[in-house]
Amino acid sequence: MSRIEALLVDDTAGDPMTGLKWSRKSTRSVSKTLAAEGMAACPNTVSACLKGLDFSLQRNRKSIGETCHPQRDQQFRHLSAIKAQFQDRGQPVISVDSKKRELVGLFLNPGQTWCWLPPEVLTHDFRSQSVGVALPYGIYDLKMNAGTVVVGTSHDTAEFAVDAIETWLTSYGWFDHPHMRQLLVLCDNGGSNGAHTHLWKYCLHERLAQRYGLPVTVCHYPPGASKWNPIDHRLFSFISLNWTGVPLESYQLILNYIRNTTTQTGLSVDATLNRKRYDTGKKVSRQLYQQIKIEHDRILPQWNYTIRPSNAGCPNSN
Length: 318
Known about the structure:
By secondary structure, this protein is α/β, with parallel strands linked by helices. The protein has helices spanning 3-8, 27-36, 43-52, 72-88, 158-176, 198-212, 230-242, 251-259, 286-289; strands at 12-14, 21-23, 93-98, 102-104, 132-141, 146-152, 183-187, 216-220, 268-274, 293-296, 304-308. Strands 3, 4, 5, 6, 7, 8, 9, 10 and 11 form a nine-stranded mixed β-sheet that branches. A two-stranded antiparallel ribbon has the order 1-2.
């Protein structure tokens, strides 16, 4: 990773579909930071370097209907600080999210691909003509630059999301981080891993914290800031580019394309299929929810919290 990339690591966002990246920092700001470190680089040089790193130069466009959350910047500062704390202690940081739902079958997949003849697909995208649906849930390990994608076939629920994280933990997490004592999870504010979803917190408690004796710290990105979640521009965007223009006609084809996704920076990806049925609309009773040992952070507690195991019956509780 270049020094410029390192300076922008906490200020980079990206589109999970197109691979475009952009930064909150200006070229002048980066130039001043480099100068303070004894590296001479004018704003034009920084701009050229950003272009070489596939950052996108965009023009303003009036398209945002909602207002910016007033605590957005405070949460970004907290996210940056807590990531640094975990990384300094050698504890894993994972970024998680659900990718766009895909119909499995001979349906149009936008984009172009090099082939002898253009693939023929169905005229209409009717669910009744599909093999099923693919619901990719991704876990991106920031230290290892590695992704694990669990492809569901039912519904994107909190139970499915936590099962996917457990799949990463048992397949790669313990092996890649043998000294893991705590886990940091970065995620969006809504959806199956939403900040206000009781089932998400209960499943984290039961299936990760309690089952493995592993404290799980969760930090949510502010509303409207999902594009800053690292998994979007470090994993999902490359998967989308890898299968662009290819009809996703089978689950095996989807898994193969995900597994074959790589980058020049050494990204590795594994994928697995989860055919378990998940029911929507599940609720957690007040009695069960009160069993969760949850500690809310003093900074924006609605978005930052740690779920700890109960002492009894936890393998790593001591």
